[in-house]
């Protein structure tokens, strides 16, 4: 994975070797009025580091990671949202962004117009859900879904029961999703756990015991605040200290 500093309005080079390009946060496609047949030009919409990396099935990912404290919804982002209202067609969800998001009642595994779920018997206000952003723009509220569009299954999306949610920097959330980042493997060497990471700066975690969950919470918060390193020895020592 490589990175380069870019400014808003800078043109983003498109990798010539990639047939499938996945555009991430901080990048927009500009229309080529002079040549409608050519591929759209990609431009940066924020100040930050331009990152490129390999995606699934020989695809190439490109995104800009800035130092923004407020989350800006982007298509295909995985997020943790809190149900704040329920209406006839679905839910309004708080993502911690400037706009509330919409979660349609049909955006769940197995939901159809004939078998629409009973909203009153489903999620209540305050429910935490793991979802994917399917559309996002400045002029419209972002839309969410709680199933994998490729498989039609929930695959971990939906309500997150129990556990604890913590707020982290957007940068740390992206790092936690990187398989080469050592923090989560270091914690896993101490005890098993479940985790859902939202690119909107929220992390949900669940362990077998309350003491393990609280120790994990304090470790992640320590890394987030910059007072704890991510080396396995340091993480294990802190876990033992917190659980003593």
Automatic annotation (TrEMBL):
Provide a Gene Ontology MF annotation, just one.
RNA binding
Name the keywords, alphabetized: Cytoplasm, Exosome, Nucleus, RNA-binding, rRNA processing
- InterPro entries xrefs: Exosome_RNA_bind1/RRP40/RRP4, KH_dom_type_1, KH_dom_type_1_sf, NA-bd_OB-fold, RRP40_KH-I, Rrp40_N_euk, Rrp40_S1
What Gene Ontology biological process does one annotation of this record name? Answer: exonucleolytic trimming to generate mature 3'-end of 5.8S rRNA from tricistronic rRNA transcript (SSU-rRNA, 5.8S rRNA, LSU-rRNA)
Name of the molecule in the record: Ribosomal RNA-processing protein 40
- Quote the subcellular location field of this record: Cytoplasm; Nucleus, Nucleolus
Q: Which GO terms describe its cellular component?
A: cytoplasmic exosome (RNase complex); nuclear exosome (RNase complex); nucleolus
Domain Exosome complex exonuclease Rrp40 N-terminal per the UniProt entry, residue ranges: 21-70
Positions of the K Homology domain:
163-210
Q: What's the source species' lineage?
A: Eukaryota, Fungi, Dikarya, Basidiomycota, Agaricomycotina
């Amino acid at each position: 994975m490589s990175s380069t500093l870019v400014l808003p309005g800078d043109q983003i080079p498109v990798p010539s070797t990639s047939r499938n390009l996945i555009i991430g946060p901080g990048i927009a496609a500009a229309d080529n009025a002079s040549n409608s047949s050519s591929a759209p030009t990609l431009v940066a919409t924020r100040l930050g580091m331009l990152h490129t990396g390999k995606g699934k099935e020989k695809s190439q990912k490109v995104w800009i990671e800035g130092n923004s404290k407020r989350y800006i919804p982007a298509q295909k982002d995985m997020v943790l949202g809190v149900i704040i209202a329920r209406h006839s067609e679905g839910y309004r969800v708080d993502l911690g962004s400037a706009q509330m998001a919409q979660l349609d009642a049909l955006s769940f595994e197995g939901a159809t117009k004939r078998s629409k779920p009973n909203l009153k018997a489903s999620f209540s206000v305050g429910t935490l859900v793991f979802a994917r952003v399917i559309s996002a723009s400045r002029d419209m509220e972002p839309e969410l879904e709680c199933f994998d569009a490729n498989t039609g299954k929930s695959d971990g999306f939906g309500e997150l029961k129990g556990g604890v949610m913590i707020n982290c920097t957007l940068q740390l959330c992206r790092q936690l999703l990187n398989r080469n980042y050592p923090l989560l493997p270091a914690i896993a060497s101490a005890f098993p756990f479940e985790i859902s990471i939202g690119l909107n700066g929220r992390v949900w975690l669940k362990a077998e015991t309350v003491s393990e969950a609280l120790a994990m919470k304090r470790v992640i918060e320590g890394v987030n605040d910059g007072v704890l390193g991510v080396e396995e020895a340091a993480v294990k020592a802190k876990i033992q200290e917190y659980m003593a």
